[in-house]
Design goal:
The chain is of the alpha/beta class. It has 15 helices and 21 strands. Strands 4, 13, 14, 15, 16, 17, 18, 19, 20 and 21 form a ten-stranded mixed beta sheet that branches.
């Protein structure tokens, strides 16, 4: 009878997979034994596997370049990393090895850009695409970059009054490239119809004529649109892409310097072992649609910019926990209590019902059982009881007396968690932030690990609280 945990996984999914395999009943992630990390660093533990970042960037570059070659596309492809997904220096260092550009969201992002310049990680020719509704410090810092000679800094106009600030702050001997963000329609089931960000479709051409066309200090370089749900093969996405490209064509006919289309909204990442997404098809279809619409309008194809954040860094991350104990709360519900909190270490599980790949790290040869996973906070929402492929969680059986601690991992957690959770700050119920370990490969292909941050101390929390 096949009732072991490894049987369950192999019967449910195509397993092993590219990044996951099992040796001697222990899980390996990118050929690294997770139990070895647990023995060295303990749990809870966050890890960041840096080579995956470069792999994702190169994958996207390859797909877009192949798609362009297939249809004889005239424009170029530019990969931008959305820093808001993870601002850590080790992430940016790895990403910038791959000749990419940067998308920013706030004033403090620009301070990071300046630091990257000081460290020699970028030069002033990099595209810096500046998005978001901008407060005064943000527009001041954008203007500073342009005044310093960052020739490809592109403030993306989000509201009609924004350009007035650049008139005042940017030196008169500088020529400023601009983008305009389209206020895309939200998906049909969303709570409102149109994005709060950007300028309405029908207002874009009149806005350009009134504010940019006859001003020699500005050139409209980019049209930008962002789909909150990301790039999906559905009628909503293709409809918004078509509308955006048609607006681009209308603008291009009166704005010869316009040459770039930013198709914001990224590719999805793998959140289940059963994940199925045809990246090549979607890339080829996007490029083919853009070329077709441009040809119909007798307009040259634009350069394509993408802004990939979660796609860049998401699949590089993991969080490892141990099961402290098991509680039987009624006839049907078993609770495995972890040694941390989902609300603090993976906050979008609580905030947006995000799901990740959950796997046992050890005991793959044991029988499995259905469980609920509970965090340490006193909040009733601190739990995980369903995966993206099933309304349940199954793990190796835990039965007292415990002969061996059960360890589990949540994988592909590399995007947004530290910024949403407030890395180094206060945590719900004062649950400390876990250790953070960076994993990299040397020139010989050997893995090495580095402790980036120790587990958060009570002293740091008390200091923040004013004690």
């Amino acid at each position: 009878m096949k009732n072991k945990y490894i049987d369950l996984i192999e019967q449910t999914f195509d397993f092993p997979q590219e990044e996951f395999k099992v040796i001697d009943n222990e899980l390996y992630f990118h050929d690294i034994c997770m139990m070895d990390l647990v023995k060295q660093y303990g749990t809870p533990l966050k890890i960041s596997y840096l080579p995956k970042i470069s792999q994702q960037i190169q994958k996207a570059k390859r797909m877009f370049n192949v798609a362009m070659a297939k249809v004889d596309y005239d424009g170029e492809y530019h990969y931008c990393y959305c820093t808001k997904s993870s601002h850590f220096i080790f992430v940016l260092e790895e990403a910038l090895k791959n000749d990419i550009h940067i998308e920013t969201s706030s004033a403090f992002d620009i301070f990071i850009v300046e630091e990257l310049l000081n460290l020699g990680l970028i030069d002033k020719s990099k595209y810096i695409v500046c998005n978001g509704f901008k407060r005064p410090l943000y527009t001041e810092k954008i203007s500073d970059l342009i005044n310093q000679g960052f020739e490809n800094t592109i403030p993306v106009i989000d509201n009609k009054n924004e350009i007035k600030v650049y008139h005042e702050l940017i030196r008169k001997d500088r020529r400023c490239k601009l983008g305009i963000r389209i206020a895309a329609e939200e998906e049909p089931m969303f709570e409102f119809y149109t994005s709060r960000l950007g300028i309405r479709y029908k207002d874009i051409v009149p806005y350009y004529k009134a504010n940019i066309q006859n001003d020699p200090r500005f050139e409209l370089k980019m049209l930008h649109f962002f789909i909150n749900t990301g790039i999906k093969d559905n009628a909503y996405y293709w409809n918004e892409l078509s509308k955006c490209v048609n607006v681009y064509c209308d603008l291009k006919k009166i704005c010869p310097e316009l040459d770039s289309l930013n198709i914001g909204g990224g590719f999805p990442i793998k959140n289940s072992l059963g994940f199925d997404y045809d990246y090549e098809y979607m890339t080829e279809e996007i490029i083919a649609q853009i070329k077709m619409i441009c040809n119909q309008n007798n307009v040259p194809e634009p350069d394509i910019f993408t802004e990939f954040g979660a796609f860049t860094v998401g699949e590089s991350g993991a969080v490892l926990y141990s099961i402290l104990d098991q509680k039987q709360q009624n006839d049907r519900e078993l609770w495995n209590m972890i040694d941390s909190s989902f609300m603090t270490t993976l906050p979008d599980i609580w905030a947006s019902k995000q799901r990740f790949i959950l796997l046992a790290l050890n005991n793959w040869g044991s029988e499995y059982e259905r469980v609920n996973l509970g965090g340490l906070t006193c909040d009733s929402m601190d739990y995980y009881n369903a995966e993206s492929h099933a309304n349940a969680v199954f793990l190796p059986k835990v039965r007292p007396p415990h002969t061996e601690t059960q360890y589990i991992g949540m994988f592909h957690t590399g995007a947004y968690q530290e910024t949403l959770g407030g890395f180094g700050g206060l945590q719900h119920c004062l649950i400390p932030a876990p250790k953070l370990v960076i994993i990299d490969k040397d020139e010989e292909g050997e893995y090495n690990t580095k402790l980036f941050a120790k587990e958060q101390s009570y002293k740091s929390m008390l200091k923040t609280l004013g004690f």
